[in-house]
Design brief:
four-stranded antiparallel sheet, globular
């Protein structure tokens, strides 16, 4: 009697192709850059909001940025961690990212860095996505 082996594969990230790992294993966000006017955006969009071009190329974004604004959310769907910290992070090149924040206390203006973290949990285990964490001073 043959036994079929099952292979356990890591659960895909909630954010899909918006985040990946570089050669060193660090998490990086993948946004879009308009090849016509140079405007950058996250998440990547099929059309440039600056010039309406459809000539958008994938581009890795800087790993670090500055916390522009944040809030704590106490009411959310049952699978999400509560309270959850969310905020906007400004990256170099005029890109502002809406994101979950993880670990510690935050202040506007903090330097933060992208990572992967659990933003919730369901019957299959942790739900992971990109998060930003404060860079120690």
């Amino acid at each position: 009697m043959a036994v079929e082996a099952t292979q356990t594969r890591p659960r895909p990230l909630l954010c899909g192709d918006a985040a990946e790992r570089d050669a060193a294993g660090n998490v990086v966000l993948v946004g879009g850059r308009c090849a016509d006017c140079g405007a950058r955006a996250f998440p990547r969009s099929p059309v440039c909001t600056g010039c309406m071009s459809e000539n958008i190329v994938a581009e890795r974004l800087p790993r670090r940025g500055t916390l522009y604004a944040f809030s704590s959310v106490h009411i959310a769907p049952k699978k999400w961690k509560k309270p959850m910290r969310i905020g906007y992070v400004d990256l170099e090149g005029d890109v502002r990212v809406f994101t979950h924040l993880a670990g510690g206390e935050f202040s506007i203006g903090d330097e933060v860095e992208v990572d992967i973290g659990a933003v919730g949990e369901d019957e299959a285990g942790p739900i992971e996505c990109f998060v930003f964490k404060r860079v120690p001073k």
